[in-house]
């Protein structure tokens, strides 16, 4: 392995805090997920094996921690500081997975965001923050995001950040009970020498990121690695 891998890591920008997922987050995490069940259902990863078993919350956390120990994943919760919370509230989840070192130096990123917080730029900001960390602190070369092609609003996240469309992957992931095509988007470190978060903030301030009107799915997630 080349590059510098460190875990646990907490990343912050403004009111947004990305921190490691914890077992003791189960109650709050479950409440957010339950409230967003309908919002997330069309994009949920499913198990194609007979019985379709999906891991429980403790099993998910243990699996994500194992990825971190193996330097193949970064499991973050997306949290936000609010006036009525002593600790930043959970507003989503972001996982960097399938980190490949050596001659590849790449990874895949997936996320979901609370529907009550969607349309406020949380997803692109979180993606930019983590991508910068992977490029600048870990030394990765390429970040990839895969999105269902019918989810036009979700495509706005990668459009806002300037990820390249690399084409369609047929039957790429098992989603909501069936094999689903995904469009693959990628960005390399050389394409954002100034940093992705800096570029995103500049686009926000100049108005080039779009009107900022909330549309259902604007921060809609690809699958959560499990």
Which features does this protein show?
single chain, 226 residues, alpha+beta, Aminopeptidase, 8-stranded mixed sheet, 6 helices, 8 strands, disordered C terminus
Q: What report would you give on this structure?
A:
The protein has helices at 26-35, 37-40, 57-69, 122-136, 155-161, 196-206; strands at residues 11-13, 16-20, 74-80, 89-100, 106-113, 142-147, 164-175, 178-188. The protein has a single domain (11-206), classed as 3-Layer(aba) Sandwich (Aminopeptidase). It is 27% helix and 28% strand. It is of the alpha+beta class and 226 residues long.
Task: Based on Cα principal axes, name the global outline.
Answer: globular
Q: What is the CATH class name?
A: Alpha Beta
Largest sheet: 8 strands, mixed
Low-confidence segments, ≥5 residues, pLDDT <50?
211-226
Q: Biggest sheet, strands in spatial order? A: 1-2-3-4-5-6-8-7
Instruction: Please give the share of residues in helix.
Output: 25-40%
What is the CATH topology assignment? Aminopeptidase
pLDDT averaged residue by residue: 88
How many strands appear in the DSSP assignment? 8
How many separate structural domains? 1
Task: Give the amount of beta strand, in percent.
Answer: 25-35%
CATH A-level architecture: 3-Layer(aba) Sandwich
